[in-house]
Amino acid sequence: MTRDDRKAHHKPFILGLTGSIGMGKSAVASMFMELGVPVFDADAAVHVLQGPGGKLLPAIEAAFPGSTGPEGVKRAELGAKVFGDQAALKRLESIVHPAVAEMRQAFLIEHAGQPLVVFDIPLLYEKGGADLLDAVAVVSAPAAVQRERVLARPGMTPEKFAHILDLQVPDSEKRARADHVIDTGVTLAETRAAVGELVNRLTSG
């Protein structure tokens, strides 16, 4: 089913929200929620599935022995088992992705009467799936602003930041591919106004 077919056959309008590290995507997602737009947070869904008593713990433990405990997934141990191993990473994704998709579908059913919902997907362009959305909004700020924000995070180093950037689709490419770009290199009030304008545009048709 193409994007145009989806527009003709469904409600709500599904807006994908993405952006590179340090671009302010979480803040923008909160702005959508403040305006009453339901937001599905893919990262939060993964934390629930892998947290204490999480639905995926048995499958992850079976595939990666010693990677889970009473508190859920042991991130350091699991990370060590999949880091740099594409086959192991694919095995983990084959466990996680279907469960996240199931939660996303339940979210859509719950909010079926809404005119607009947002899917907050950090690695949308890296992992694919944009074709399943009605439109994509990319959160973006100047590179100097991004760098300052990220290096202010605890434990972050220039080397770690450079490695993360290498794994992500460049911001310029994300902006070029997006249907909408939300600038967070301005004041919060200006970004909030831009989000409100976008919501009005997408819900007034």
| Mean pLDDT across every amino acid position | 91
CATH architecture of the largest domain: 3-Layer(aba) Sandwich
Strand order of the largest sheet: 2-5-1-6-7
For this entry, what is the oligomeric state of its chains?
Answer: single chain
The CATH topology of the largest domain, please?
Rossmann fold
End-to-end separation: 22 Å
Number of strands: 7
Topology:
Blueprint: H1 3-9, E1 13-18, H2 25-34, E2 39-41, H3 42-50, H4 57-63, E3 68-69, E4 72-73, H5 75-82, H6 86-110, E5 116-120, H7 124-127, E6 135-140, H8 143-151, H9 158-167, H10 171-177, E7 180-183, H11 188-203
Parallel strand pairs: 1-5, 1-6, 2-5, 6-7
Antiparallel strand pairs: 3-4
Helix pairs in contact: 3-6
Structural overview:
This protein has 11 helices and 7 strands. The chain is α/β, with parallel strands linked by helices and 205 residues long. 55% of the residues lie in helices and 14% in strands. Helix 3 packs across helix 6 (86-110). The chain has 2 domains: 1-38 and 116-205, 3-Layer(aba) Sandwich (Rossmann fold); 42-110. The protein has helices at 3-9, 25-34, 42-50, 57-63, 75-82, 86-110, 124-127, 143-151, 158-167, 171-177, 188-203, and strands at residues 13-18, 39-41, 68-69, 72-73, 116-120, 135-140, 180-183. The longest helix is centred in the middle third of the chain and has 25 residues, at 86-110. The model has no long low-confidence stretch (mean pLDDT 91). Strand 3 and strand 4 form a beta hairpin. The protein has a 5-stranded parallel β-sheet, sandwiched between helices. A two-stranded antiparallel ribbon has the order 3-4. The protein is globular, with a radius of gyration of 18 Å.
